[in-house]
Design a protein that fits this description.
The protein is mainly α. The chain is about 70% helix and about 0% strand. The longest helix is centred in the middle third of the chain and has 28 residues.
Length: about 270
């Protein structure tokens, strides 16, 4: 129902982080292994395709552009077209799989890798949601970065809502997500910032490698392969951030840790 009033998050971000750690004790490795599998398909597969099919979006523009802009275009960095098409066509299904997988883990305290690919069962809907969400956020991002961030926060719960009820329509979950986030945007930002150190720590190996080693040293293919291998800690960091985002959604829906009603509830409800 669009007129429903959702819970206003009062829980402290570090409390959410501590309870996520307690919940994942003894099972975190299995959960993160599933996240790494997901990001293998989301990141590594298109990067490998980009190595073998290197034509970029800039190459395509140069093919049709005969104006004086050619010199400027040639200096711009390009992205392989195959990576753009891959992300456009599949990231919606992968994002749904990520939400289903994390919800399953939070609720059942079990890492079920089958959930990672269940988004393909409703491919048309998740593709439409991904495109709609991207267009809306992209539009607001044109008015400088803050409106784009606000829009991203507004629709941050849409895939979770669809995962919970696939019968809902695209515009319905977008509208519900926006309503859920009224009064909760700052709380969501605080939760993300609390989990962000995982990302920065995981990014250090890749950053150090790219700073001290150049592509000329090993060649483009070997250099790209090394960077891809160094993305593994980042995938694990994404998994920790997923736990925080999913717990935030559960708080919105359940109305506090005390109302959690599933296998993993003790880890969240027990006083720390």
């Amino acid at each position: 129902m669009l007129d429903r009033e959702y819970y206003k998050i009062k829980e402290e971000p570090f409390d959410i982080l501590r309870r996520c750690r307690r919940h994942s004790k003894g099972t975190l490795a299995g959960f993160l292994a599933g996240i790494c599998l997901l990001y293998f398909f989301m990141n590594w597969v298109p990067e490998i395709l980009g190595i073998f099919i290197p034509q970029t979006n800039i190459d395509l523009l140069l093919h049709f552009d005969t104006s004086a802009n050619r010199e400027m275009l040639e200096k711009m960095p390009g992205t392989p077209l195959v990576m753009i098409i891959y992300a456009l066509m599949l990231n919606g299904a992968f994002r749904m799989g990520e939400c289903l997988y994390t919800l399953t883990y939070i609720r059942n305290k079990k890492a079920d890798c089958r959930a990672l690919f269940e988004g393909f069962a409703i491919y048309g809907k998740v593709f439409g949601l991904f495109i709609m969400q991207t267009l809306i956020i992209g539009f607001w991002a044109l008015f400088f970065i803050i409106p784009g961030i606000v829009a991203a926060f507004n629709f941050s719960q849409s895939f979770y809502l669809l995962a919970d009820d696939p019968s809902k329509g695209i515009t319905q979950v977008l509208a519900e997500s926006k309503i859920m986030m009224i009064g909760n945007r700052i709380a969501y930002l605080r939760v993300l910032l609390t989990f962000l150190p995982y990302y920065f720590a995981a990014y250090l190996p890749a950053m150090a490698f790219s700073y001290f080693v150049s592509a000329d040293t090993f060649g483009n293919t070997a250099y790209t392969a090394a960077l891809m291998a160094l993305e593994l800690p980042l995938f694990m960091a994404y998994g920790m951030i997923d736990l925080g985002r999913c717990t935030f959604y559960e708080l919105l829906v359940c109305g506090g840790f005390e109302n959690f009603r599933y296998a993993g509830q003790d880890a969240f409800r027990e006083e720390l």
